Amino acid sequence: MKAVIVLFALPALILPVACLGYILWQGLPALNWQVFSGQGMSGFAQEHGLYGQVAGSLLLMLGATVIAAPVALALALFTRLYLKQRLQTYVTTLLHLLQGIPPIVYGLCGLILFVHLLHWGISLLAGQVILAVIILPVLVLNSLHALERIPGEQTEAACSLGLNNGQLIRRVWLPAAWPAMLTGLLLGMARALSETAPILFTATVFSGVVWPDSLFSPVTSLQTHIFYLAQEGANSQVVGVAWGAAVILIALILLFSAGALWLRRVQYRHRRMSG
């Protein structure tokens, strides 16, 4: 039975590692300062380099995080403080359902609402808002789990000392839960960096933009740049730039994911020492 389990588990372990190795093998030789800066480069979408795409991806991710994080924290605190256990279960179920909706559906909704009905056009703000909606369930669920792990004795002791809800949040809950919340925030940022379809419809253009003039200007991003280069590239040099962009995007995602993993381990060691 153990051999059968290992046999079925091996593809889930080997295939991602093989894909990552192939991407690195194809992309690392294509990465150099000229490809990143665009100096001395010419041809199909190569004159501005990749730094504009990196900046656009980070702006979309940071804007989505700034929008979603306060809303997620407020919703988690409201659910924990004021809703009964049955309603909390309904909220959690709804959040899991929202988390399972395909991102392309969010992109189409953003296209209809923000781009056409609100007349924002293809813009940085539209992409940030739709990414914020996508990562909001992840952040709320993580915040709820962080609050649930706080020992009930601490909350009861704080209430017995006469602390109101605001003091309970500031002095007991947030100091105890912020490492886990920060871990979830980093994972949400990695999720925002990995989405392509929503920003393809709402925020990005292929080329012609290095830095957006305002929140209502379009941006370029690594995700959509890879998509267009791989689809339209007619020579090996262009495809090589696409592989290089993929390596940069994976490195950014791994950076935030590794930060979340490190924080989780630090928190686990702290709980063991406290226990």
Counted beta strands: 0
> If you average the pLDDT, what whole number results?
87
* Structural classification: mainly alpha
Strand content: under 5%
Radius of gyration: 22 Å
Features:
275 residues, 11 helices, MetI-like fold, globular, mainly alpha, single chain
Description:
- The protein has one domain: MetI-like fold (Orthogonal Bundle), CATH 1.10.3720.10.
- Helix 5 crosses helix 6 (124-148), helix 6 packs across helix 8 (165-194) and helix 8 (165-194) runs antiparallel to helix 11 (236-274).
- The chain has helices spanning 2-27, 33-37, 51-82, 85-99, 103-117, 124-148, 152-160, 165-194, 197-202, 222-232, 236-274.
- The chain is globular.
- By secondary structure, the chain is mainly alpha-helical.
Q: What is the topological layout?
A:
Blueprint lengths: L1 H26 L5 H5 L13 H32 L2 H15 L3 H15 L6 H25 L3 H9 L4 H30 L2 H6 L19 H11 L3 H39 L1
Helix pairs in contact: 1-11, 3-6, 3-8, 4-6, 5-6, 6-8, 8-11, 10-11
What is this structure, in a nutshell?
The chain is 77% helix and 0% strand.
